[in-house]
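Lab notebook page, bench 4
Experiment: in silico fold of construct C2
Operator: M.H.
Input chain length: 291 residues
Purpose: comparison with the prior construct
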Amino acid sequence: MGTHTTDSPDPTHGTAPLPTPATQAGRDGLAALLADPRSAVVGLDFDGTLAPIVADPEQARAHPEAVSAIAALAPKVASVAVITGRPAGVAVRYGGFAGVPGLEHLTVLGHYGAERWDAVTGTVTAPAPHPGVAAVRAELPGVLERVGAWQGTWIEEKGRAVAVHTRRAQDPQAAFEALREPLTDLATRHGLIVEPGRMVLELRPPGMDKGVALAEYVRATGAGSVVYAGDDLGDLPAYAAVDKLRSDGVPGLLVCSGSAEVTELAERADLVVDGPEGVVALLRGIAAQLD
């Protein structure tokens, strides 16, 4: 499990303090980034990692210092990739990433990699949407009503996916559990899968996840090291991708944006930081080490 110590892993790389990863693999990953930053890819989840979790997902915004922290780091590494289940354009808008000097090396992989936005072009590229999403969207209100979980739930339209949030229900966890089976049945009938998260169940097409997106991006960039930071169950495939890359000889660092709601990532991470504020501080610390 990660640690919050502030010893620099290598004082020769500057004076800004950096937390020390709790595992040897994590220490190797961080050392590889510091030794050859131009070949490093830094992957970041959005909600819960760059942006604090809020009751209404449409009100989510990046931490006030996230953009400046990424802008400080991005020019010094091969690329920074924000990998999110949100549509790429929404993540760009909520993150405030468009038109920011220093973010030329930023890519946003939306819908788990199905959509891509590059800061250099400012455009989104994407394939046609899965037809099952429209079918699920039409049936979803009736399913929620039958389950009796309509009160307080929130349907988030995500273009290539649809999500049901229970955070505003009277009993968020009970509503979450009551909806898991019927939403899984609904998704299966239309060729989709259900991705559980922090008081949210997302119905989306199979075949893409953050692990696939991250692995393909790392391969495409020819990265020599990789960092990935996430906070939720949907980030576990990206963790697995980093584990696989490490076994293939690409050093990596797994960072958990810590919360009391999800413990699985903290148990697997090399380094645990205190939510988006801690992620921002880590990005700033790495950038300072590379000055």
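Observations: Residues 1-15 have pLDDT under 50 and may be disordered. The longest strand covers residues 225-230.
Next step: discuss at group meeting.
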